Amino acid sequence: MPDHVDSSDCVCWGCVSMDAQRVGVCVVHAVARGDLAAPTVGSGSLICLECQDRIQSDLRTVVNRWAEAQEALHPGSGGGGSERRTPRLDPPAPVRLEVVDALKVTSDRVWKLVVAVVDHYADVRLPDDQTTPGLAEWLSMWMVPKLASIPSAEEVLRCYWWVAEAVEEICEVTEGATVTVVAPDQCRAVINTEGQGQAVCGGEVKAVRQLDGRGDAVVQCVKDSSHWMPFANWQKQMAARKPRRARPRKLG
Q1: Are 185 and 201 in contact (CB under 8 A)?
Q2: Which of 60, 130, 163, 212 has the largest count of CB atoms under 10 Å?
Q3: Are 103 and 69 contacting, i.e. CB atoms less than 8 angstroms apart?
Q4: Which residues are bridge partners to 186 per DSSP?
Q5: pTM of the predicted model, to two decimals?
């Protein structure tokens, strides 16, 4: 997403999200596609139901994978609940620093969401369980509509990306699963059409990421699976759309 410029046709993420709020369309889709292709939103909400569902699903993933990520801190320490444990004199397995970092980022992003809700809604009371998975579950069950209705389009978009970063980090260090994310983005592969020359495919893209170490992750078009790109390349494109604080547009 380009940097902010002081002009009426600025297309930085901040200006696009504010324009989307003004015309009543989803700010997440507007940043990815532009206002004309973004779905409309309900009264008071700044993101569509699809994006709200994605936030809720991603927060549930944080809850469901938190214990698995904790176990991944000490690889090879072994032992299921039914295993016979014998005394051992070996030193404990070293902590995997990449897991520590991932849990730290996940926890940080969840708390940012909590602070955003508390700052904007005076009637909100935190749950008794204020661990990261406890707060993520509370957010997923009760707070998604409130996050979607924060008055600032920029902050709503920022909250959306905090959730995305949280789930990305925890999925990165948990094993034995494939994560599939249907992103608010379009396939940009160029295709030949009968009588109309070349055109952009425009299908939804599906990011498929293997977490068990087998194969390289790719992003595929839902409409045509032959349209794909490495996940890392797609991730860089999405990162370019992440919120960056923009200077307010000059008035007059």
Answers
A1: no
A2: 163
A3: yes
A4: 204
A5: 0.66
